[in-house]
Amino acid sequence: MSADCLFCKIAAKKIPSKIVYEDDEVFAFEDIGPQAPTHILICPRKHLGSLNEASSEDQAVLGKLQLVAAQLARKLNLLAGYRTVLNNGSGAGQSVFHLHLHLLGGRTFRWPPG
Ligand code: 5GP
Ligand code: ZN
């Protein structure tokens, strides 16, 4: 846990959120500013600022983020089309520096993304 990190505080339930999935490695909660009818953030419990800080020891949990996204997509009936997004660095729109995978669904998505 990183003391100043918003998402570490959400994981520790020091800041309230709508948690939709959690286990000993991963937690997922509804985004406060949804960009689609379904917008969930899926995070490792381990504090990693971004993908740039990840190493081979994080390989399994990085894969697990995607598998939890697919599991939630099934549960929430998003299989017609959903998107997982990992913004890496401020130039890519990252605003919270605890690595997180966005799961977006419930609308049509354009390509390329903005
Ligand atoms: P990023 O821009 O870093 O890829 O995504 C950060 C996401 O965190 C944004 O979509 C933003 O709406 C969400 N967010 C920021 N602060 C909070 C918060 O306090 N609670 C929740 N649930 N989501 C937050
Ligand atoms: Zn953190």
Walk me through this protein's architecture.
- The chain is α+β, with helices and mostly antiparallel strands.
- The chain has one domain: 2-Layer Sandwich (HIT family, subunit A).
- The protein is built from two helices and five strands; from the N terminus they run αβββαββ.
- It has a five-stranded antiparallel β-sheet with strand order 1-2-3-5-4, with helices on one face.
- A hairpin with a 3-residue loop joins β1 and β2.
- Zinc ion binds next to α1.
Provide the fold topology.
Elements (H helix, E strand, L loop, with lengths): L5 H6 L7 E4 L3 E5 L7 E7 L14 H17 L6 E4 L15 E5 L9
Antiparallel strand pairs: 1-2, 2-3, 3-5, 4-5
The chain binds guanosine-5'-monophosphate (5GP) and zinc ion.
Characteristic terms for this protein:
single chain; 114 residues; alpha+beta; HIT family, subunit A; five-stranded antiparallel β-sheet; 2 helices; 5 strands; binds guanosine-5'-monophosphate; binds zinc ion
Task: Give the structure's gist in a few sentences.
With 114 residues, the protein is of the alpha+beta class. The chain has helices at residues 6-11, 59-75; strands spanning 19-22, 26-30, 38-44, 82-85, 101-105. 22% of the residues are buried.
| Bound ions, cofactors and other small molecules, one mention each | guanosine-5'-monophosphate, zinc ion
How many DSSP H or I helices? 2
Euclidean distance between termini CA atoms: 32 Å
Low-confidence stretches: none
Structural class: alpha+beta
What is the string of helix and strand elements? HEEEHEE
Sequence of strands across the biggest β-sheet = 1-2-3-5-4
Classified in CATH, the superfamily is HIT-like
How large is the radius of gyration? 14 Å
CATH class: Alpha Beta
